[in-house]
Amino acid sequence: MLIQCTKKLLNQLKVKPEPGIEEEALFSWHTNIITVNRRKTVVLVNDKNRYSIVLYGLKAKDLKEFDQHIREVVRRTLEEEYIKDDLVEKFINNSGDIVYAKTRNRSLVSRMNESCRLVEFYSELLDESSIYQPALSKSISQMMVGDGEGGYIDPNEEFYQDLEALSGENIFSCQAAVIMISLALEKEKVWRRLVVPVNISFAKLHQVIQAAFGWKDYHLHEFYIYGEEKTDISNINHSGYHKDGLRPIICLIGSEEDLEYQDDYVKMKLEKGIRLSKYLPARIKYNYDFGDNWQHYLEVEEIIDDYSYNYPQCLTGEGNTPPEDVGGKYGYQKFLEIIADPDHPDYDSMMDWGQSQGYKEFDLEEVNKAIKRRY
């Protein structure tokens, strides 16, 4: 594996670059060290496909063990992509011994610098508990970039194609859950059946649900996780209420500001870094927009042991999602009454407003496109 370093990184590593080294582009990386949140951060960018991999919070002892950390972050990032285990090992083994050289290609240096800027811009995605950053690596590698010839590429898709060529077969495999998600409405049926990798984070699951239902992510959200014990929450308006009378064991929230409103009844915890697999097969409720109070009930229907994709999909669904800021269940019913009556004096204005808020017919193909974009 050829690591082509900036002068700054070579000085930090205290290694002497090898001259005239040639390596297959798939196993060659342009690499820089930057400072993010006052911590040393290394960004590796693949020469062939521009896939980016990130190490964060490196200390002096980590720089002494840099070879080991490079192999480990590559392994963890491929695992985050749900690449088959045997292919992960094949890629690591085919990469060979790590050799250091100077950066030598102006175009690749420019691409590396752009990836460094993306790491800084999306620093809120960093996992402060680890030097390995597979989730951030995956996220920034999904972003379309220029190919140097006036066109654009998706680094992750390019990397998948390279791995398929190396493997000669489908490269993905993971355990996945089929989940039925129903929006709690009294008179309308709105539901989606999704298949998601069980290792998905709740932060990503939030994005998937938003895409599946066509929400705009304008408002706060939370997940309630339930066990089998019955609860004494009888108030249907309590955010932790469950239609089957279950007791919540934890509430996962998306914003640190929400921690200021700790519920005496159930512990609240930031969702960042927590994965769905931690709580399976518990039932879940997803609340979105605490004003309109949209409650989504999640139930796992099936576990698939060999799911051959690395992203969630919507299998089927029914019903249109209410417009954002329609005024909750009551407001939605009034909205439906008006748009069902072309003679109503507010019909035209309400139709225009609904469209501006994204109200539209459920379309499975469009939903899956949205899920892939958001994931």
Automatic annotation (TrEMBL):
Residues 176-368 form the Plasmid pRiA4b Orf3-like domain. The lineage of its organism: Bacteria, Bacillati, Bacillota, Clostridia, Halanaerobiales. Residues 2-158 form the DUF6933 domain. This is Plasmid pRiA4b ORF-3 family protein. It comes from Iocasia fonsfrigidae. Signal peptide: none annotated. InterPro entries: DUF6933, MM3350-like_sf, Plasmid_pRiA4b_Orf3-like. It comes from the Bacteria.
